[in-house]
């Protein structure tokens, strides 16, 4: 038999069998201290001196001291139980090691594909106030993409798909492919949360903050809410996405 310490050091066993009570699905904290330690190829995170493994049983080894310290801080912040939902930086590091690294080319293709139908390119045809707001707030980001990466995406009216120039899509693919597995894990999440490769790149390159990227990604919803009011459930979902995007931005900064 293995003891609780052996079980918890493998991150795929964060969650125990369902039961009653708010914390019934969470493992109890058993360790005293988490810490990051420098090794030859990066920084490993340890619990009471024992290395943590990812869900795929790889060593949780990250490329920067800042990221290692942030992960250790998340583990130290756990109270009586270990709640993965409060450990977003740890989750992204696990994703980089277990899901991105082993299929790097596929992940690059997935991220770059957002450029073919980027949110910022599809514009409302009316009313005039929404058309004007999209142009005012989205055009500068597309201009930044062009000036920074020589990639000018074309606009479309309405929701009818518009083919983008092949050379522009190829350039954006090159930009994405230049990133490391750890960077791609964060970029993939940012692009998915925003529905926009342009916003994801602007975030990872520090052209936009997480809050700015979130607000631009949900410009249409905000415009509607100004006129009809917020739906509480919809607003709660958007705020959760904002929280996740801010955590993603923090993770990217730590790299």
Could you explain how this protein is built, in words?
This protein is an alpha+beta fold and 255 residues long. The chain folds into two domains: 4-83, ATP12-like; 102-254, ATP12 ATPase (ATP12-like fold, Orthogonal Bundle). It contains eleven helices and six strands. The chain has helices at residues 4-8, 65-76, 88-100, 104-113, 128-149, 166-177, 181-194, 197-204, 210-217, 219-228, 232-254; strands at 34-39, 42-47, 50-51, 61-62, 122-123, 156-157. The strands form two sheets. Strands 1, 2, 3 and 4 form a four-stranded antiparallel beta sheet that branches. Strands 5-6 form a two-stranded parallel ribbon. Strand 1 (34-39) and strand 2 (42-47) form a beta hairpin. It is globular. The relative contact order is 0.11.
Summarize the topology.
Elements: H1 4-8, E1 34-39, E2 42-47, E3 50-51, E4 61-62, H2 65-76, H3 88-100, H4 104-113, E5 122-123, H5 128-149, E6 156-157, H6 166-177, H7 181-194, H8 197-204, H9 210-217, H10 219-228, H11 232-254
Helix pairs in contact: 3-7, 4-6, 4-7, 5-8, 7-8, 7-11, 8-9
Q: In angstroms, what separates the terminal alpha carbons? A: 38 Å
How much strand content do the residues show?
Answer: 5-15%
CATH class of the largest domain, named: Mainly Alpha
> What is the second-level CATH architecture of the largest domain?
Orthogonal Bundle
What's the helix-strand series?
Answer: HEEEEHHHEHEHHHHHH
Summarize the structure.
This protein has 255 residues and is α+β, with helices and mostly antiparallel strands. It has helices spanning 4-8, 65-76, 88-100, 104-113, 128-149, 166-177, 181-194, 197-204, 210-217, 219-228, 232-254, and strands spanning 34-39, 42-47, 50-51, 61-62, 122-123, 156-157.
